[in-house]
């Protein structure tokens, strides 16, 4: 589980991806339609996550187990959402899959 500053507790296996939006993070979960929002930094949360969570963009950390298809510049998730993969983090994604 991961404990947020907002006192919410989220099981790691429910996290599909995390999106950074300024000073806020949006945790997209398999069990909810709307994201869980927390005031935090992506860098701080990244350090507390296991190795199956990788950063694919300056604004995204994705759960590798939720990736359905990997394209050269984006990933398609099992929930149908497409996320952009930046050139900086492309090698991270290639190494982990």
What's this entry about, in short?
The protein is mainly beta. The chain contains two helices and ten strands, in the order βββββαβββββα.
Can you describe this structure?
This protein has 97 residues and is mostly beta strands. It has helices at residues 42-47, 90-96, and strands at 2-3, 9-10, 15-21, 24-29, 36-39, 53-57, 60-63, 67-70, 74-77, 82-84. The strands form three sheets. Strands 5-4-3-7-6 form a five-stranded antiparallel beta sheet. A three-stranded antiparallel beta sheet has the order 8-9-10, with no helix packed on it. The chain has a two-stranded antiparallel sheet with strand order 1-2. A hairpin with a 2-residue loop joins strand 3 and strand 4. The two termini are 23 Å apart.
Adjacency order of strands in the biggest sheet: 5-4-3-7-6
Q: Helical stretch count?
A: 2
Q: How many strand elements?
A: 10
SSE-based structural type? mainly beta
The termini sit apart by 23 Å
The residue-averaged pLDDT reads: 92
Q: What's the overall geometry?
A: globular
Order of helices and strands: EEEEEHEEEEEH
Please describe the biggest sheet, giving its number of strands, its sense, and whether it closes into a barrel.
Answer: 5 strands, antiparallel
Rg measurement, Å: 12 Å
Helicity, as a percent range:
10-25%
Instruction: Assess the beta-strand content as a share of residues.
Output: 35-45%
